[in-house]
Amino acid sequence: MPVLSIAQSLNRALDHALATDPDVMIMGEDVGRTGGVFRITDGLQTKYGSDRVVDTPLAESGIVGVGLGLAIAGMRPVLEMQFMGFSYPAYDQVISHVSRIRNRSRHRFTAPLVIRIPYGAGIGAAEHHSESTEAIYAHVPGLKVVVPSRPTDAAGLLSAAIADPDPVVFLEPIRLYRAVKEEVPAEPDPTPIGVAAIETEGSDLTLMAWGAMMREARTAAEELTQQGISVELVDVRSFVPLDMDRIAGSVAKTGRAVVVQEAARTGGFAAEIIAQLQERCAWDLLAPVARVTGWDTVVPLRQGEPHYVPSTQRIVATARRVMER
Amino acid sequence: MVDDMRQVLTPAGELTGECPVDADQAVEFYRLMVLARTYDRKAMALQKQGRLATYASFEGQEAAQIGSAATLEPDDWMVPAYREPISMWMHGYPMELLLATRIGTELGGSPPESVRVLPASITVGAHMVHAVGLAWAEQLRGSTRVALTYFGDGATSEGDFHEAMNFAGVLNVGCVFVCQNNGWAISLPREAQTASETIAQKALAYGMSGVLVDGNDVFAVYEATRDAVARARDGGGSTLIETMTYRMGAHSTADDASRYRSPEALAMWRERDPIERLRRLLAEWGRWTPAWQDQLERESAEQIEHAVTTAEALPVFSAGEIFDAMFAELPPHLVEQRRWAEEA
User: Fold this and answer.
1) From the CA atom positions of chain A, what is the Rg in Å?
2) Which residues of B touch A49 (CB under 8 A)?
């Protein structure tokens, strides 16, 4: 099996989808000639032509809205937003139409499309390039929202998203694009949407994260293990559907939980997980569930970024406090 | 380029040029316009009785809707806003489902498999980009099917109007944009909506044809749309058609147009009524009689009454059924919530 980065793995999954399904097409700003700003679609226009890998005008609402028309007509468009902070002009199309057309028409018209959105801070980019606003997508009924944190899942979840009969928002952790490598199956093996992954089993504390924050979470889990704390590390992977059976099962077992989220604190997705833990396993808890989050500030520019993104140190410190109660 | 407003049939019922359809088709247009107005007035009455929720009257816009819808083949796409029920019906959308939406059930948004009409779009302008995607999909598959979308003068101020027109121009897809310029976006008059002299002239900026027609002249609307559809089928790209018409009623049953509109304007437009002008022509041709008018109105009322009965007999969703079209397959959290809703 080849050793690939997340970026390479995504490219191979897209290549595979284009090769095996004639209805699949890729649309977005700069996805063709240059292969996208992160080169995720590199080489695909040359291979499949400009009718299937389409450089669109610079208009996010148009990309998603035109993509919806294509999907209603039976195509399988994979739409790229360049950065999460640039996806908001298309948010009206997502919340008002993409997520609703199946229900509005009682299954007569559907939206089998994927919206790929690179997200997150940590690369010192310009303003609006560092957002992680997954919660505003997870809040919309009618969407599935997923995020991989490793190359195998990147290909697996993307393949599952493209094959899904409903719209999927597919988040891509920018700072892990090339930072994580692993062996990836030559042909993508779809990762079921809605299933969390227990990366490491443990008995003292459940540590949960997703996407880019899995890197800090993995390091924190190692440090805590060295300190004698047995950590069960969970990669949430899917916001909608959320695998609460697996998550609550883990917390019921360990009795302690920390949820890590890069996004601003208030109304973030960690709050949803904690609310559901409270509904499902409050009596199994040995300590209040804690969260480590970004702050309720605008994501700072490059110099201030380290103050914002949860660090391994903050995660370890929070986990230790939870263990002391 | 945009030329002067095209008109074939004057408000006095006189032809200014060659009629684009034969007499039988003209008679059919008249029948459809009578049906449309009867439907509209019946819907207004049903709303007053509390049997429909909010309703948006299209009285005065019959020619703009019927003349354009008549140009499509059954497998072309129609992407309507919310004020074109007669166009949707002409393209195969069951009348009882048009009413069902207003009664308040999503069943109204679910036409039969063969009907290529999207459910009415309540958001303004956002549906126009869907029409571009549909037209593009047809083009990519080598078909000559086109997509026609309706929107109002207010929609031309929305960003998605621009994005739809721009994508359609760049992709050179076969899309027909039919603007129902009815003079009003709720309370905002056309002149406060855009500083453009006409809406049709906006087409120039997108590299497509723009045509301005008298929207109360069913022949002019038909001719312009027929030509635009033919151009779209032949790979000649998209067209923006501005049909200059007038919203005789309020924005909706929740609106009171007397707060912002003078009775004089209304009276002036009453003189330009699309139905009356065709009636005059048909009478001149010996194809209209009071007895036939009575017959048309009676037959229309019967047809509509049947649709109302059917619509009112549609099943009402149970608590659980409101979940059932959220996804192809209900995910676990919705299965759970569905159960809670049923138990509540």
Assistant:
1) 19
2) none
